[in-house]
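Input/output pair, single chain:
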Amino acid sequence: MTRSRCRLGRTGWRIVPRLAALLVACTLGVPLPVWGAADTLTIGITQFPSTFHPAINLMAAKQYILAMALRPVTDYGHDWKLRCFLCTRLPTIENGLAQPIELAEGGTGVAVTYQLHPDATWGDGTPVTSADVVFTWETALREGTGFAAREEYARILKVDVIDAKTFTLHVDRLTYTYNAFGGAILPAHLEAEPAAEPAEYRNRTLYDTRPTEPGLWYGPYRITEVASGSHVVLEPNPTWYGQAPAFGRIVVRVIENTAALRANLLSGAVDYVAGQVGFNVDEALAFERDDEGTFDVSFVPSLIYEHVDFNLDSAYFQDRRVRQALMYAIDRKAFVDALFGGKQQVAHSLMHPLAPGFDPEVRAYAYDPERAVQLLEAAGWRRGSDGIRINAEGQRLSFPLMTTAGSRVRELVQQVLQAQFREVGVEALIRNEPARVFFGQTVTQRTNPGLNMYAFLSTPEGVPVEMLRSDRIPSEDNGYSGQNFPGYRSDRMDELLDALELELDPDKRNAMWSELQQMYADDLPAMPLYFRVEPYVVPVWLSGVRPTGHQVPATMWIEEWRAVE
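Output:
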């Protein structure tokens, strides 16, 4: 796949018809493309991962990269149904590989037996075994290791090792997703030493201190080069047991400015831009409008939930009336229509309308600035001399509004929110950070007293335990585990989350989903903005890129990607 500044198509050479694109590239300081290996695929993304550890600080950019180098035991496919990736057969109660068990202290658990692929091998030749599963589970349970989804491991009462490739998880409850095991597996032979000191593990893990170590990876590719903030290089893993990947080298380039990302794609410096962490809808619309047959453009509905977190421990937002006022103050439909051509779907809840359990009758906040003013006045916030509201102590209702730097659309949304908040006497100060800092520190450590705007990805009918349960609030004491970043605390929500997972009857589960959505709308730990469509701008010469619409990225099938003549 040789490239020069004039290449736009896979099979032909022609001058770029949009001279403006190259001028933009020069203006933005984008390096002009260079000659590359014929089997190199260069992918552009907008964020650099804050860590390469698969279980610490989950973020979409990291998932996108690691899906090429690792595989979960189970996860959801393109049909939104659970399937095996690392295992050989999906356990079910019907096939006998999952069995309900009565727990000694009462209640019903489940014993689920998985068999790892017999040829699954770490990149250094060491087999992936049941011992790795045990090590991962034990590491996750140690306080301070920083596992983001620790709850999944905490529910495992014990692991029975049947043989090197077969193990049984004894789980403390029988849920409707009883056979899902999407947690990462770590190489015990490499990570045992760094994990010996749990409080230091997130700083000592080889995934960050030595990410090019072959033994960390068992997917079709392994990471061979990392330049922080710049790029990641992956090359075929010789121990991969599945279909051989087509490209001899994958270069993932991080270009946080989406205008520069577009210029790089048009100039040929980037072959393809990731769907989940790449272009925004407006940029994809421009491709759809202007393209001359070089790209296939599609918009895929997804479970990506764009929202704004409140910091509920902040003095600004402890009064629920203030949170509700800010919801009434924003006109989400107007900016979705203006910025995204109406393609994004306004969110009234954390649940997508396509997801099982969605309740269309859930409370919705229409644009009503007068109602916003009434709620702010009732909460004790009066307009000050400069138009910004103050409370009885003279504190101004002024706080940071933060998101990932370089995302032009998010920055535009920020400006709209800022202007609409200002109309009701609220001052939002725009302060953005690179994604690796924003997610690695600010969001995880909850240091922003104001608002954080970002997106969550989910699985179909995934219960938001990590987002909403009280014991999943990150703190120094728990090594900043969990993803309840607003700090939401509700005994009833905790009970509901626990009961929801255990309810096997879909109708009864739907009633619980309705209550959860109503509580979320009333309490507002976060402001729902919209559900993103994933814009895919795929060069016509690249086949095999199939989006899922949920949290599993298209790179989970990277071995199917091919260059077609």
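The domain at 77-211 is CATH 3.90.76.10 (Dipeptide-binding Protein; domain 1). The mean pLDDT is 89.
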